[in-house]
Design brief:
The chain is α/β, with parallel strands linked by helices and 395 residues long. It has 3 domains: 148 residues, NAD(P)-binding Rossmann-like Domain (Rossmann fold), CATH 3.40.50.720; 140 residues, no CATH class; 86 residues, RNA polymerase sigma factor, region 2, helix turn helix motif (Rna Polymerase Sigma Factor, Chain: A), CATH 1.10.1740. Helices cover 49% and strands 15% of the residues. The chain contains 17 helices and 12 strands. The strands form 2 sheets. Strands 4-3-2-1-5-6-7 form a 7-stranded parallel beta sheet, sandwiched between helices. Strand 1, helix 1 and strand 2 form a beta-alpha-beta unit.
Length: 395
């Protein structure tokens, strides 16, 4: 890779992962060139990124955002094509010039672009865990067929990737995902029932987007990571565990059959796993704050409380159900998180909604992207109809 300029397309450019990715790119202009950017509703940030990195293609979610973005770019004398919605995301994901696609969109909306990038034979640095949750089996099959690589961007899966480097998968005893425990690790059931969206959006360690921050508070995030790890590393679910580590210094561990445990440590900074994925198989030289173990003084670990955080039990049931279980788990959670953020349901109702949906889901595996998308749509439509009926009953 030395001397080679990698051309990068980025989905989710205006989010926290996108901004961190571009921070790394900016540090190595001789190694990376941004050719396409896709963002959400924060068009001011996207415009600033376009001014700095001069991509050849931009994408936004809505037509109003596209008009505003075009106006902002015109002021700077920039004439960059802007595409909208699904068409735009797919265009960024399959940009002919791109060598690597960073998939940092949040939620199920990231699945189609991720699939399209892999189908086009492009390496995907994956932060959109929902893609692997919904379609891990299918995405692995497509990547194998085209020769594309799926490179983990989440700190936990990057840590496992690093701890597995050079080791035989046959000698893995188990994968151990670490979790901060979120802000409510010591809350009583009554306190958790009263949690507000404002409280749930204050993570004690990481700076993340709102959806993933709430997922961390419910530990759904860790449940989704169990499914993601199962597909990323081809490890049976029963060999994947979760341990609570409040300091967020040990990002995950791998235990081998001889009892040895390899861990990856670092400060909670997403630029570290991002740089590892972008530089692989090399490590980039980064001028970032370094881990000082003497200053930290101690590293604590606790068993994950599955009674307080039932998502960790529910995900095992979802995995046993096959693709439909994982899709239903994710769709129900996304739906419930949105309703919680808007004050429609309570904090504990998020995982309660997931549990209720899983009870009604028929175990199935799917062989096509369309089947997966149809299952996802069906779950969301049924939840929306149920919620509408409940609201009418209350009135």
């Amino acid at each position: 890779m030395a001397g080679e300029v990698r051309k990068l397309a980025l989905l989710g450019a205006s989010g926290s992962i996108g901004r961190s990715t571009l921070d790394i790119v900016a540090r190595f202009p001789e190694r990376y060139r941004v050719v396409a950017l896709g963002g959400g509703r924060n068009v001011e940030t996207l415009a600033a990124q376009a001014r700095r990195f001069q991509p050849r293609l931009l994408a936004v979610q809505e037509s109003t955002g596209a008009a505003k973005l075009a106006e902002l770019l015109k002021r700077d004398g920039l004439d960059i094509p802007i595409l909208i919605g699904r068409e735009g995301s797919l265009a960024v994901a399959t940009c002919p010039e791109a060598d690597i696609v960073v998939a940092a969109m949040v939620g199920a909306v990231g699945l189609e672009p991720t699939y399209a990038a892999l189908e086009a034979g492009k390496d995907v640095a994956l932060a959109n865990k929902e893609s692997m949750v919904m379609a891990g089996r299918l995405l692995n099959r497509v990547a194998t067929a085209t020769g594309a690589r799926i490179l983990p961007l989440d700190s936990e899966h990057s840590a496992i990737w690093q701890a597995l480097n050079g080791e035989s998968h046959r000698e893995v005893e188990k994968l151990i995902l670490t979790a901060s425990g979120g802000p409510f690790r010591d809350f009583s059931p009554a306190e958790m029932a009263a949690v507000t969206p404002e409280q749930a959006l204050r993570h004690p360690r990481w700076k993340m987007g709102p959806k993933i921050t709430i997922d961390s508070a419910t530990m759904v995030n860790k449940a989704l990571e169990i499914i993601e790890a199962r597909w990323l590393f081809d490890i049976p679910p029963e060999k994947i565990e979760v341990v609570v580590h409040p300091q967020s210094i040990v990002h995950s561990l791998v235990e081998y059959v001889d009892g040895s445990v390899l861990a990856q440590l670092g400060l909670p900074d997403m630029r570290l796993p991002i740089s590892y994925a972008l530089g692989a198989p090399e490590r980039l030289v980064l001028d970032l704050p370094k881990l000082d173990l003497a200053e930290i003084g101690r590293l604590d670990f606790f068993a994950a409380d599955e009674e307080r955080f039932p998502a960790l039990k529910l995900v095992r049931r979802a995995l046993e159900m096959g693709d439909s279980g994982a899709i239903a788990f994710n769709a129900a959670n996304e739906f419930a998180v949105d309703r919680f953020r808007h004050g429609v349901i309570g904090f504990l109702d998020i995982v309660g909604t997931v549990a209720a949906v899983l009870k009604k889901t028929r175990p199935r595996n799917f062989s096509s992207l369309q089947e997966i998308l149809d299952c996802d749509t069906r779950v969301r439509e049924e939840l929306g109809a149920e919620m509408t009926m409940k609201m009418k009953t209350r009135d």
